[in-house]
Design a protein that fits this description.
By secondary structure, the chain is α/β, with parallel strands linked by helices. It is built from seven helices and seven strands. Strands 3-6-4-7-5 form a five-stranded mixed β-sheet. A two-stranded parallel sheet has the order 1-2. It is globular. The relative contact order is 0.17.
Length: 190
């Protein structure tokens, strides 16, 4: 968890609101999170009884004060400039969602590839839905909640469903399809 939090704190994009919800952990997670919150005023830590991932995601959307949402799980970590790059691509392509790739690795031996040579592709919601239903690495990225910078307004009227397996697919499908937002928006993958 420390590696995850530190990767967020190292971001080159500094205007971040960092919401950490300890969803009923029984280990030392809450104390670790509080330690970081005491050293960085961008971090807000909430400890609660276990309610599950859908509840936590819905709660975070309600709490968030910013215009964008970026999801990261406690066992993940991110390159120091990923939020800045995702934000730049959102603006450049006038998009609502900016998506990045992911690579499985280990926090002890992983080196991120150089991101200066990665192509940016802008596409519409129809193409986004098509990519969800492909059976490959790309569809996994498109369907997951993480690895994306998403305009918070897209969540208006949307809720992650409680008690549903793969709850993120329901919400991402609606985000791409545009049930709660005009259908003429563009999507972006980096």
């Amino acid at each position: 968890m420390s590696y995850c939090i530190e990767s967020v704190l190292r971001q080159t994009y500094k205007n971040l609101e960092i919401l950490i919800i300890d969803d009923g952990s029984t280990d030392n997670s809450y104390n670790i999170c509080k330690k970081y919150a005491n050293t960085d005023n961008r971090i807000k830590v909430i400890h609660q009884e276990n309610h599950g991932i859908s509840y936590v995601r819905n709660f975070r959307v309600k709490l968030a004060k910013g215009n964008y949402i970026f999801w990261i799980d406690s066992d993940d970590y991110i390159k120091e400039n990923i939020i800045e790059k995702l934000y730049e691509n959102l603006i450049k392509c006038d998009a609502d969602i900016s998506i990045c790739d992911f690579i499985k690795g280990s926090e002890t031996d992983y080196i991120f590839p150089d991101s200066n040579n990665i192509a940016v592709e802008c596409f519409d919601n129809k193409r986004g839905l098509e990519l969800i239903y492909k059976n490959d690495h790309y569809s996994f990225i498109m369907a997951a909640s993480w690895a994306k910078l998403i305009k918070k307004d897209l969540y208006n009227g949307l809720q992650y469903p409680d008690g549903k397996i793969f709850e993120y697919k329901t919400v991402l499908n609606k985000l791409y399809y545009g049930e709660t937002y005009p259908l003429n928006r563009k999507k972006l993958i980096k």
